[in-house]
Amino acid sequence: MKFGSALSEELRGKHHKRAVRPRVGDSVRIVRGEFKDIEGKVTKVDPSRGVVNVDGVTREKLKGGTAPVPINSSNLVVTSLTLEDKLRKKKMEVPQ
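Predicted structure:
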């Protein structure tokens, strides 16, 4: 299963890539579905299901309380990246 999200126009120009795997800490904007136009940070990633949880995207439970709603990674646009990981930072560098 493919697992990735599009990069924003600004990041595409900067990193010369079209898509990237979302990671915890990335800032994303939801572009499709019930929660369209909500922006937040990725709080959990489940690559086996191809979904991520975004901070602030929750649904009321029948018995009270809230539960995070998983969002398909293809319905997201990454607006800022976390480059703390050395391998990811190296992959995102533009080749000279």
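Summary: The helical segments are 9-15, 86-92.
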